[in-house]
Amino acid sequence: MRLLRCLAGLLALCAGVAAAAEPVRDDRGVAWQGGPPRRIVSLLPSLTETVCALGACDRLVGVDRFSDWPAQVNTLPRLGGLDDASVERVVALRPDVVLAARSARVAERFEALGLKVLVFDSDNHAQVRHSTEALARVLGQPQRAAQLWAAIHRDETAAAARIPPRLRGRSVYFEVDSTPYAAGTTSFIGETLQRLGLRNVVPAEYGAFPRLNPEFLVRRSPDLIMAMDRELATMASRPGWHTLRALKDGQTCGFESERYVLLIRPGPRMGEAALAIADCLAGLPER
Asked: Of 56, 63, 112, 217, which residue is the least packed, with the fewest Cβ within 10 Å?
């Protein structure tokens, strides 16, 4: 029996060593080579936040125009966005790595110029977790990823407990753009809503962030509506939307700009976002 326990322990140790020896790969399958980077450029707000949450904010030397949290990143050079990043300015910063979304058009150009690039998707919780764990390993602090995800899980659990029983299982429409685009069931926002006990009005087969026919909402008439406050204020003026029962009954959550950005940004503050949603729902009038 002792021999079997020793053998099991040895196998576990070997498995752990093998996992640690596996190269870090981004969402293209590109492997990270080299030691922890000291100079980082981030071209996506969620990746900027993740780097800082992992304790490496001081390694950032430049960010995209939308990165605004934590406050200390606001002093860094602004390098454009996904589609218009300034290649010359990025190169001049001599980064050890550039972090970007898969949709960034300049990733290949940076690599052609000899820069290392890591790209990550962030449509759902699993992708956000992968990017967090990958970045933690790249930064040389793998243990921080587990701590971060434990905190997110703790906040989500607390948020779910705050949801009034009368609202559990209710249908919800979460607007990400007034065109209208919605947060679908398979998006990170949709997954958070599901963890809070809500039912997304958008079917899973529609994808993560589908553009909807405005008549779709009129037909489905969700029990709850969430959107940026200024969009919510004029929502009833859209053709047919004055009939939506959520608008008529005041079962809506309108978030001011800074709070709304928190909700639509995947990353280390997803637990905080869940708490913000729960706080709004807990304050809705009974109907």
From this structure: 112
